[in-house]
Design brief:
Largest sheet: 7 strands, mixed
CATH class of the largest domain: Alpha Beta
Strand content: 25-35%
Bound molecules: flavin-adenine dinucleotide
Mean pLDDT: 96
Number of strands: 20
Distance between the termini: 12 Å
CATH architecture of the largest domain: 3-Layer(bba) Sandwich
Helix content: 25-40%
């Protein structure tokens, strides 16, 4: 089959690899210049910052097995950073709950490196936004917008289309599949403002990462405590979902100023950064994932996958959800044609 996958995040890449291994001809369309979506590494003059996903944990055997392979290949490594809970500059132990005791992993030398490894051998067309999915007979055409190819160029025809993108980005494309659209509309995402900070000297903070209470911030982490990052005092701070929703339309300067103040209060350090930059994630975390592993309409041959599926896990959508959903999507297609 000739299959189009929209989105080169983890879900799309895993799905593409599986489908290609099954003998399908797969093309992945990605709107950004870089792949791996929210497992992002922002390149700056100080080196890379993990400004999206911070680390991943594994509950399922399938994801645990994948991590064993990735560790052997040298693509990911354990992250044993010291983590605490912070409130107004006071650090407390993060406790010993089952969630806390889980091993954390990071991709090396930055979170996006895992996607770059998984992308090898795949046909990925970057900087191509899929604007519309259109039926042509029993096949599909994609309408693309790009700065590098003429606007509205059509790609296809494809025998099947997979949307491996957040539900809020999938719904505008799912008018052609009303049943899938109705389900995708049930998922909910929260945005996140991320702040990246570089300091001249060490802040001498006795931890590498912290969940922050009573603050605009929810999380901070010292990037260089992760393996193979460029040395230097680099921190990433994530605003809470509530603050990010309320301040979603703030301009970057205002958000930066407010989040930097919150960083100073949370850490108790007043040192000014030599680098400060913010990034606004529109669809950051699936705070209401939907039941199941993925969506697939066997008559229309269109599907959707990503971290907005529970995929047998508890809690919000995470990297493991994206992995399991991408795998399940490929399996649904395999079963459909056999
Ligand atoms: C700030 C932040 C912190 C996080 N922290 C963690 C964490 O610590 N641990 C954890 O497990 N998870 C974390 N997550 C969530 C994790 O990043 C995601 O669950 C996971 O990366 C989702 O992968 P995905 O493939 O489903 O989607 P994405 O990574 O969003 O991939 C979708 C891709 O599709 C592209 N795209 C979208 N629309 C189109 C279109 N129309 N045409 C072409 N391309 C398109 C996007 O550019 C993107 O590259 C965090 C996320 C954020 C933003």
């Amino acid at each position: 089959m000739h299959i189009a996958i929209v989105g080169a995040g983890l879900a799309g890449l895993i799905c593409a690899r599986q489908l290609q291994e099954q003998g399908n001809q797969v093309v992945v369309y990605e709107k950004e210049r870089e792949i791996c979506g929210r497992m992002g590494t922002r390149q700056t003059e100080l080196g890379g910052f993990d400004h999206g996903a911070q680390y991943f944990t594994a509950s399922s055997d399938a994801f645990k097995n994948a991590i064993v392979g990735w560790r052997k290949a040298g693509w990911v490594s354990a992250w044993n950073g010291k983590l605490v809970v912070l409130e107004n500059g006071e650090a407390e132990s993060a406790g010993r709950s089952a969630e806390m005791l889980k091993q954390r992993y990071v991709a090396i030398p930055g979170m996006s490196a895992l996607g770059q490894q998984l992308a090898q051998g795949l046909d990925i067309r970057t900087e191509q936004l899929v604007k519309r999915v259109e039926a042509r007979g029993d096949q599909w055409l994609l309408n693309l917008v790009s700065d590098t190819v003429p606007a509205d160029e059509a790609a296809g025809p494809f025998d099947a289309v997979i949307l491996a993108i957040p539900s809020g980005q999938a719904t505008p494309l799912l008018g052609v599949a009303p049943k899938l659209l109705a389900q995708a509309e049930q998922a909910r995402f929260a945005p996140c403002w991320a702040l990246m900070l570089g300091f001249q000297d060490s802040l001498d903070l006795p931890y590498d990462g912290a969940w922050v209470k009573s603050s605009r911030l929810a999380w901070i982490a010292r990037d260089a405590s992760k393996q193979q990052r460029r040395a230097g005092e680099h921190w990433v701070a994530h605003a809470s979902p509530a603050w990010s929703v309320e301040h979603f339309d703030d301009d970057e300067e205002r958000a930066k100023e407010k989040l930097l103040k919150a960083f100073h209060v949370a850490t108790g350090s007043q040192v000014q950064p030599i680098y400060a930059h913010v990034y606004r994630w529109h669809f950051a975390q699936a705070v209401q994932p939907i039941a199941g592993d993925c969506l697939w309409d066997n008559t229309l041959r269109i599907g959707a996958c990503g971290d907005w599926f529970k995929a047998g896990l508890d809690g919000n959508g995470r990297i493991e959800n994206a992995y399991l959903s991408g795998l399940a999507m490929a399996e649904s297609l395999r079963l459909a044609v056999h």
